[in-house]
Design brief:
Its EC number is 6.1.1.10. Is required not only for elongation of protein synthesis but also for the initiation of all mRNA translation through initiator tRNA(fMet) aminoacylation. This protein is of the alpha/beta class. It contains 17 helices and 16 strands. α2 packs across α3 and α16 packs antiparallel against α17.
Length: about 525
């Protein structure tokens, strides 16, 4: 009997359509997409979600500025997001929109349940609000200058509000949250975030969260108290469940990918980790729902000089420009490999070009073209594995292939995507080095030995191609064609007989050098 296919549900944040997406958003979405591909390669049943967070005061204001209705405005912006993902060749399974009618139903169902349980109650909110971050802040969390309050990170001015509001009893779950953070290994990654959240939020004591607004209308109105619209973060976080039809008639996806699912991973940038590591777990807990397996928080991309990207500095890196210039796959490769998971990084186009040339053109691409060219020069048929002709260098390469596979899988399973890909490139370097040691061009009169060397190279190339396939969907097809194979199968790494009946084909250059 077949083993049940494991499930993997992976999400990006749903992005605000109040502006254009930049390279930071592409970074998050690329990470999620690469993990989705990785799990598909391991035969998981994968669901990959991205989308747009379409409510809130900021969107209402933006639409007004452009003389559009909020709905017209978000329709235009969400269509742009989809175009960007198409250009970036990122295929997702579901695009969440918080203006979708089913999503509103889910959020209202949730709200109703929490009211009934008395976890949500009505009161008066008096405090500070950041329109740009759609975030409530206490005076101690804000920066105070010249009699005014500012957001501690974006430095945007905060508004003081006093209005009727519904609240979620966060304080009730404080102890539960603290102990859960500590008990569950891998729940929050990287772990040091927990310390920061503890120091900045839990030690001061969690305040109840205001979950409705009455001062604007662009949101989901409460069914029985229509002047209140639901707070954008409660609205937005539940997209992860509304996308699976949670609490609706046909909730098969919810049962499959969440309730009875195997792995649930949210990828978020560090500035919104707090919403995902404090609010979201508490919201789920208050409904007695299962928690995600992992909340993965990554660092921020800054400009080449280490400054925060912002419109006013005119230093925002546009992903459309990069993709049109260099192609979608190299850009996604760069983002997956050159930024240490969890740390901030500067984006520098010069560095991008250097990485492209050294890793892709001179290393992996060159290995492929050299290997195929040498085979075609001396053999008309396949080059076979011959166990009893293996020498010291081959043994080392075969060991390296198996070791790299082990490390690669381990790094990927622990979300260290940059390290995993570096292993693949190192293996490619070793193989190029192996060519320099064995000097195959001097073996034209010793075809037996030449066959051993070239077969070893093919086995190495196959392993590297498997590893790289999580980011190079299209290039992998070109390589497979040259290797006369049709699919990637990680289980075949180490099956040294794979090429015994494969006649390889010459193809075009995999990566042209950038001059
Ligand atoms: N709408 C909320 C998320 C709701 S999720 C339930 C939001 N949207 S956003 O448009 O501001 O996007 C924030 C996300 O974009 C970050 O968490 C991060 O993933 C990505 N990035 C935005 N700027 C970034 C950088 N400069 N660098 C890397 N990623 C960044 O917050």
């Amino acid at each position: 009997m077949n083993k049940k296919q494991k499930t993997f549900f992976i999400t990006t944040p749903i992005y605000y359509p109040s502006g254009n997406l930049h390279i930071g958003h592409l970074y998050t979405t690329t990470l999620a997409w690469v993990f989705a591909n990785y799990k598909k390669n391991l035969n998981y049943d994968v669901k990959f979600l991205t989308g747009a967070d379409e409510h809130g005061l900021k969107i209402q204001q933006k639409a007004q500025e452009m003389n559009l209705s909020p709905q017209e405005y978000v329709d235009i912006q969400s269509a742009k997001f989809k175009e960007l993902w198409k250009l970036a060749k990122i295929n997702y399974d579901y695009f969440s929109r918080t203006t979708n009618a089913n999503h509103a139903k889910v959020v209202l169902n949730v709200f109703q349940q929490l009211l009934k349980k008395e976890i949500i109650y009505k009161g008066i909110y008096k405090g500070l609000y950041s329109v740009s971050a759609e975030e409530f802040l206490t005076p101690t969390q804000a920066k105070f200058k010249d009699g005014k309050y500012f957001h501690p990170v974006s430095e945007d001015q905060l508004i003081e509000v006093e209005e009727e509001s519904y609240f979620l009893k966060m304080s009730k779950f404080q102890d539960w949250l603290l102990s859960s953070w500590k008990e569950k290994e891998n729940w929050i990654y990287p772990q040091q975030i927990i310390k920061e959240l503890e120091n900045n939020f839990l030690e001061k004591g969690l305040e109840d969260l205001s979950v409705t607004r009455v001062s604007f209308t662009w949101g989901i109105p409460l069914a029985n108290d229509k002047k209140h619209v639901i707070y954008v973060w409660l609205d937005a976080l539940f997209n992860y469940l509304s996308a699976l039809n949670f609490s609706l008639d046909d909730d098969q996806d919810y049962l499959k990918y969440w309730k009875n699912g195997d792995e649930i991973v949210h990828i978020v940038g560090k500035e919104i980790t707090r919403f995902h590591c404090i609010y979201w777990p508490i919201m789920l807990k208050s409904l007695d729902l299962k928690q995600p397996t992992t909340i993965l928080s990554h660092g921020l991309i800054r400009d080449a000089n280490g400054r925060k990207m912002s419109k006013s500095l005119n230093n925002v890196v546009d992903p459309i420009y990069l993709i049109n210039k260099y192609g979608a796959e190299p850009v996604k490769y760069y983002l997956s490999t050159q930024i240490i998971m969890g740390q901030d990084a500067n984006f520098d186009e010069e560095h991008f070009i250097n990485v492209y040339n050294s890793n892709l053109a001179n290393n992996y691409g060159n290995l492929l073209s050299r290997t195929i060219a040498m085979i075609k020069q001396s053999f008309t048929g396949s080059v076979k594995y011959c166990e009893n002709k293996i020498e010291k260098y081959e043994k080392e390469i075969f060991n390296s292939i198996l070791q790299t596979k082990e490390i690669y899988l381990d790094e990927m399973n622990n979300f260290k995507i940059d390290k995993a890909f570096k292993e693949a490139i190192n293996l490619s370097k070793k193989l190029n080095n192996y060519i320099d040691l064995t000097l195959p061009w001097t073996l034209k009169d010793n075809l037996e030995r030449l066959e051993v060397v070239l077969n070893t190279l093919l086995n190495g190339l196959y392993a590297i191609t498997c590893f790289m396939s999580c980011v190079f969907k299209e290039k992998t097809q070109e390589v497979l064609k040259q290797l006369n194979l049709t699919t990637i199968n990680f289980d075949d790494i180490g099956n040294w007989n794979l090429f015994n009946d494969k006649i390889v084909e010459k193809g075009s250059l995999l990566f042209e050098r950038i001059k």
